[in-house]
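Board notes (copied after class):
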Amino acid sequence: MITIYHPSFSMPLHIDGFAALHRLTASEASIVRLILDNCDTLRIADLRGTTSGTVRAQIKSILAKTNCRSRAELVRKAAAADLPPLSDSLESLATPVK
């Protein structure tokens, strides 16, 4: 199977339903969104104002909670579960950790 991606034709995925389904924290949900946006660990850490070690630990927790073995599997699972949004109350995805 070949998937072609073009940014101008993409639809945003609603991850808050996915996050709620898997009991992800707001911070973990924001990391999932950044992973879906093709950010690597260093970029996520930079955007969130934290270390790459912290991001790796959070990704490990996300993979465990979602029963995924890799980021690729997480992306497939999140995309397949494109659930409708629960609310608009999730904090900004790139909000630095305080």
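Comment from the instructor: Confidence is low (pLDDT under 50) at residues 85-92. The radius of gyration is 13 Å.
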